[in-house]
Amino acid sequence: MRKRSAQRASHKKSGQDRKRKSKGAALLLFVVLSLIAFTSCLVASSALIKLVLLKSRAQTAAEAAALQSAQALSTVTIEDEHFGLIGLSDLAPSQNSPKALDGKPLPITSINTLTASTRASLIIAENLGNDTLRRLSLEDSSRVKEAALKLTAALAKALAKQEAKAKLVYLNNLEAAGIKDHNLTKFVLSLGRKASANKSDVSSALATITPVPQPYNLAGLNSKFYPAFTDTPVGRESFQFFAVGAQSALLPVDNFQEISCKGETANAIASLVKVEAEVSQDLGMSIKGVKTAACALPCALEDRSQSGLLVFGLPQGMPGGYETLQDLLSDHQHALSAPLFISQGGDYPVAGEATLAQWHGLGTNPKSTNVFALGFYDWLRTAHGRYNLKSVLNTVLSRVQPSAEAFRPGQSLVYRIKDNDVIAEAHSVCDVPDQKVHENQLYTVAWSALQATNGTWNLNFRDQVRHLGRIAGGRHAGQSMECDGYFGKNSSFGEADRKAYFDGGIACEIILTLSPPVVSQQN
To answer: What is the rounded average pLDDT of the residues 195-220?
Structure first.
């Protein structure tokens, strides 16, 4: 009995020992597994922190590279045969500007300014129902679109050359942020645009710094600035603007559309820069690197150039039966032949080698109405679309007279655009005695060019701004003519008004005289 009891006690004690050993082993295993899990969590947490840090600093580096590349595009220019120097930004002439053959500095006109100017001119032409103005506007619109695609191709080429510098900006930013021992596996710069906004909701489009002329109901847009990459048509003619800002800025990369270029032209206009980068680093896990992307738009300066002057000389008053500029622009019934000539070989007649050749830009036999329309269009073009549309229309449709004083026969009316409104000022005809016409610009003295109720009238005409730029614009590159001090004598014009390149100058001059012919001083 006692022996069996001792055996049972021994077996019980042995079982308890086994249970204690089993529990100890389980606890030890749990501790070991916990330590392994904790260590793994620490490793994963450290890798995750490194990954987040790498991604954040890589994104900042990509944004810096995108901004630097976008800023570089702001300085790209092309030289166009129709409009001269063109870029994304308007730049006034300065000491460092390209020079015309006469040694004077030239402005750089932004592609958006040219587009806005042409669009505004077409609005004026449609509201006046003038075929010549419409034709000139559509010709310029076609040329501006060609220039826009050439500028886009130039931007793409500049961006390709910029890639090495942008990559260096990216790497320097990583280094400055403390990201060491990395490997840049991808870095791509691309030029593109945003998807076009809904035509009924231009507010969702990227903006420009080019103002929409007032009143907005005539402009056909209810926004302060033109939208970018969005069609803003006038009738059937489309107009699109490049995206630029007052300063370079980052944009979401969503809906970025890369464009393609072939030779000297592109398949669409574009001005946005996108950076795509991939950087790898040993993070202690299977994750080796991150991908980042950034998008930026270039900056541009506001157009602050002054319009040229339109001089309308009436030494014997208005022709009988004519009261408005619209009468002169549209009365084809009484308009007679007025052939146009271009000065070649220098400024005519002051350069001894200069000659006049017939110019057929308005056809083989233009009438005085066509010539009036050409002069009016080219003068208006110098204002770059920065005028109140209603003010221009009222000027054309209202009685010819000064804005704020009585008009006396024998005076010239000088039209200028000031604070977006057309201002007409009266001055003596002898304020502009010099009949010089710049090289490659237009001139005519057309006898019996207009049949009025009080006789036949002669037309003296010169247009100094028809052909623009150094390629086609001649010695002065189509810049307005300096007034040479004539407006400074016995008039309200001061020194600032006589500047030709940034502050005005004579764009066009039209003088009507009653027959018998009045021979000009040069003849």
So the answer is: 82
